[in-house]
Amino acid sequence: MSAGGPFTERASSLLALETHAFEVLLTTSCTDALEMSALLLDLQPGDTVIVPSFTFVTSALAFVRAGAQIIFADIEPLTLGIDPAHVAELMDESVRAVVAVHYAGVGCDLEGLQAVLADWDGVALIEDNAHGLFGSYRGSPLGSFGRFSTLSFHETKNITCGEGGALLINDPADIERAHILYHKGTNRRSFMLGEVDKYSWQDVGSSFGLSDVLAAILLGQLEQREPIMRGRQELFDRYLSLLEPHAGRLGFALPVVPHDRAQAYHMLYTLLPDQPTRDRVLAELRSQGVGATFHYVPLHSSAGGRKFAKRQTECPVTEDVAGRLLRLPFHLSLSPDDAERITTALINALGR
User: Which residues are CB-neighbours of 80 under 8 A, at least 6 positions away?
Assistant: First the structure.
């Protein structure tokens, strides 16, 4: 079944209710949703977008494809979200948008970002909320703060249909054009609503829509969101109870969730003392069959990042965190015994 069927409608409506979005468009990926955001900004030559260096490449690539240059911002060390103080230093007249990534499903400093952007009319906040569905910031859903927000339903996410995403539209003024882009640049939605007697090419766009077959899988996952999220919370809490007694002695740090935020339980990471220790421990865990891994390679120091950046920026926290971060296996198939075996292996490796 193609995009736009009954399962799409039901999944979109449920997501709109949960996220407070005015409109939800299911897409083939979070990348597509980001690319739609970039097109809706109507970027012009010389425009720039501020993106955290500590994120997946498509947080920046989507805007590069639309013609923008990137300015990479550092993260703050508490939640590993984009640092508003650094954003304030990087702002100039060329900036059209700032991308906020809610790393590991913990909201970044949205109040700080809003304070910075209050001094810059017309600069959009875009939330890359690939990790954060069902998380919140001061009681409001993550994804409800930006002009646009994007979601991921990739196989690695809490809620999945194998591969998929969504664009959340939080300003009603963007809805009509978003549908034109979504329908391959045509006014097909107006035709379906009976507003015009035929539809035709109007604007840029692409085939962004998610197949209704995948939307059916997504809907089934969304309808089970409470047990899914409860299971992930139980696993997270289990890890923490096993690791916290050893953190001070072995010199590693665990995720911080500020009191005014509810996390989405997307992952469990640790920050080890230094990169040599991280790399040694990672190799030892893998030798024992524990599928631990690192995470992002800083974008500002990558070949593509240097190529598409407007100017080079310093991101020392990003470089430090990227070298020390280790992610533990985190999925609902893990039993309490599995979690204990994994943490025991980590503690023993750090103790050597």
Answer: 54, 103, 104, 106, 321
